[in-house]
Design a protein that fits this description.
The protein is α/β, with parallel strands linked by helices. Helix content is 38%, strand content 23%. 32% of the residues are buried. The model has no long low-confidence stretch (mean pLDDT 86).
Length: 213
């Protein structure tokens, strides 16, 4: 029996259910973010005018629109206007540059064994191989986004800001993320072209167009 057991093939499967712990609400804060601006610019270009966006504790907002309309710029402006401590935000940008990826790896390597182990366990649930990740000099775009998500999932958060989470994520990881976001009771602002994902997770919609008049 021992010989048969030693000879049996073993397949390691990564992945598993995810949860987002909601940060305790502050009774004194009527909203998490209020962005009011006469215009929003990208360099010399005016992307949109008369912006007034309020994110409350239970907001589930889908920001939609064509490429180049300013959705990512608007999401970054919302992030800057948030009144919460930084550790209560889970932010997934559309792209992570090389410098940001290296900084992310360094932050995780600098954690204590307990915190690092918890974070890497979350990364494994997203389909990453923790040992391979720690040995790498630069994670791939997909690995970096999963690692960024795992870092956010390891904390209690009050607001989740996601910019096209479907980019660079494989289908199993995206499905696990969708399920945990559907169960999450905090605020969510989502930029996505995936209408099915938006309909599942959001009950409000903000359409951004290229017409700034």
């Amino acid at each position: 029996a021992e010989h048969a057991l030693d000879a049996a093939p073993v397949t390691r499967r990564r992945g598993g259910a995810l949860t987002i712990a909601r940060a305790p609400a502050r009774a004194s804060a009527p909203h998490l973010c209020r962005l009011q601006a006469a215009q929003l610019r990208a360099g010399d270009r005016v992307l949109m005018r008369e912006i007034d966006v309020c994110v409350q504790r239970d907001t589930r907002l889908h920001i939609s629109g064509p490429n180049g309309a300013g959705k990512s710029t608007l999401l970054r402006a919302i992030e800057r206007a948030v009144s919460l401590p930084r550790e209560q935000l889970l932010v997934l940008p559309q792209e992570l540059g090389e410098a940001a990826c290296r900084a992310l790896l360094e932050r995780i390597r600098a954690l204590g064994p307990g915190e690092r182990g918890q974070l890497l366990a979350l990364a494994a649930r997203l389909g990453l191989a923790p040992s391979r990740l720690l040995d790498s000099q630069l994670p791939s775009p997909g690995e970096a986004r999963k690692l960024c998500l795992a870092e956010g999932l390891s904390r209690e958060v009050a607001l989740v800001l996601l910019d096209e989470p479907e980019n660079h994520l494989d289908l199993p990881a995206l499905e696990r993320l969708e399920q945990c976001l559907a169960e999450y009771q905090g605020a969510l602002v989502l930029v996505t072209h995936d209408e099915a994902l938006a309909q599942t997770l959001c009950d409000q919609r903000l359409e951004v167009s290229r017409d700034t008049t």
